[in-house]
Specification:
With 243 residues, the protein is mostly beta strands. It folds into two domains: 90 residues; 121 residues, Sandwich (Immunoglobulin-like). Helices cover 0% and strands 47% of the residues. The strands form five sheets. The protein has a six-stranded mixed sheet with strand order 10-18-17-12-15-14, with no helix packed on it. The chain contains no helices and 18 strands. A hairpin with a 2-residue loop joins strand 14 and strand 15.
């Protein structure tokens, strides 16, 4: 857990998770096995967990006078894991900046990619592909040559990863399909389209993560950008004609 400050004085508590499996994906609906306390159990956390480490994938906004701890609890395979979120100074970060791609005199040289997706919220029917358009731009940092260089060398480049964040059924992403519920591809153009299909009705959230090469380093909390798409999936219309 990390925390950052908003212009209005409120705070963001950033949460992520580590699914120790290399292949198994878990579904833990909001409730006894996936909840926050105190306050509402649903704070926008994922209910679908893809393998390995996933940093800073969602935030919970708390008021400027927040005190104490906000605890996220998960129960899986009979084991209970909890992480308390606090505003202790040691957890405070600024996700707009990183030292990767900068140096002591130009520490803010690397910025997160700017990302927009269309649509952000929509309704489709089961089996009908949804085309999502994503546009991403970046400052070209960090570069491949010279870990702490601020100029010269080719950019590491942007990677786009789509994952199922919430939803009752299977979600398939194409192109770039990797494993169920997850899709990774190298962005060659500023704008790309992804075809998404859903296996059953329900409320879904798909999350795009655009990374400039910093996300894989566990010591950095910049520079990648998350974008969520909310989709209501309805059952397919009946093909039986009325007489």
């Amino acid at each position: 857990m990390t925390a950052s400050t908003n212009p209005d004085g409120t705070f963001n508590m950033w949460f992520g998770y580590m699914n120790r499996n290399h292949k198994e994906e878990l579904d833990l609906p909001v409730g006894p096995e996936n909840n926050f306390s105190p306050g509402p159990a649903d704070r926008g956390q994922p209910t679908h967990f893809v393998p390995r480490r996933n940093k800073d994938i969602f935030k919970v906004v708390v008021p400027k006078d927040f005190q104490g701890a906000l605890t996220w609890t998960l129960v899986s395979h009979g084991k209970t894991l909890s992480v308390p979120g606090t505003l202790n100074q040691v957890f405070m970060i600024d996700r707009k900046y990183t030292t990767r791609g900068g140096n002591d005199t130009q520490i803010s040289s690397n910025r997160p990619p700017e990302v927009s997706v269309t649509p952000r919220e929509t309704t489709v029917t089961v089996g009908t592909p949804l085309m999502i358009s994503l546009t991403a731009t970046d400052d070209g940092l960090p570069v491949k040559r010279g870990r702490y260089s601020i100029s010269g060398g080719d950019p590491v480049g942007l990677t786009l990863e789509w994952t199922k964040f919430r939803g009752p059924g299977m979600v398939t992403f194409a192109p770039g399909e990797d494993i169920q519920g997850r899709s990774t591809l190298k962005l060659q153009e500023k704008t790309t389209q992804t075809r998404v299909t859903f296996s059953e009705p329900g409320e879904y959230v798909s999350q795009a993560v655009v990374d400039d090469g910093s996300r894989g380093n566990y010591s950095y909390h910049c520079c990648w950008t998350n974008a969520d798409v909310k989709v209501t999936v309805k059952g397919a219309a009946s093909s039986t004609a009325q007489r």
